[in-house]
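Q: Got a minute? One more chain.
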Amino acid sequence: MDGWQVMAQAAELEQRGEPFALATVVWRQGPSSSRLGARAIITTSGEVRGWIGGACAEPSVIRQAQQVISDGQPRLLLLGTTDQFGDAIPEGMTVVPIACQSEGALEVYIEPVLPVPHLVVVGRSPMAHTLAELAQVLGWRAERLESTDFTAAAVGERSMVVVATQGHGDEESLEQAVAARPAYIGLVGSRKRGAAVLGYLAERGVPQDQLDQVKVPAGLDLGKTAHTEIAVSILAELVQLRASGQIAASDTSPAKRVAEAIDPVCGMTVASIPANRPLTHDGVTYYFCGAGCRRQFESDPASYARNETRC
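A: Always. Here it is, folded:
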């Protein structure tokens, strides 16, 4: 894919609410298989869509990108041997030593693209309209649906759902909401009304663990309030829960880490997988960034075996 195709796919992923990192080559020193302005998407699982470099650069960029997704902070990478640059490395740049035979170098800017919170408000009361509008002011992806239009398919596991039907299909809407198992479900209404709705659903066979997800009444307790203030109290509760980590806007945890090792010839960190040319010497299995390093090791194992270090 070229850079614009990468950006088009990035827009699709963002629309679907999937977290990823966008890597852009901002400088290169030849010889290098990458080019200035090359872009790639890296997902939480380590999948690469696009092109940012060859076998030396790509594994390092993937590891760094997964960390960027996890901590939500962009970073600028320098991939190459530090002796190429001396004291010219800017403060704050992350240096990732690589020792490719090509002797090229790259600077790659990696930025996280994390989905905005998704809120679905079910109902047509003035409060429901106000809540959706306030959430949009915060930059959230907020939508309001009539109870007759709402189904479990409208939300995902990271969505937040507020059922504000207020007597117009409460039970049906809440049953659809709990079936989807979103990150948050709130029911607007009194505790007495909430107990009646939940009791009805329990009698219909809705599992108790699903019903236990429901917060009723939704929102922070502000006492007797107008409908606009109820909307504020619900939004404040959602902000509070997200800030405390009780509601995750997205799953940004990297996939289970693959075991890694140090290439004993060039010092690169490589995954301990069959694709990285494993070679066993004196009972220790070594992995290599490329065929050249493996051949060099084979020519004189004793010179390199002492360099082997596990990650």
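A: The CA atoms of residues 33 and 274 lie 23 Å apart.
Q: Perfect, thanks.
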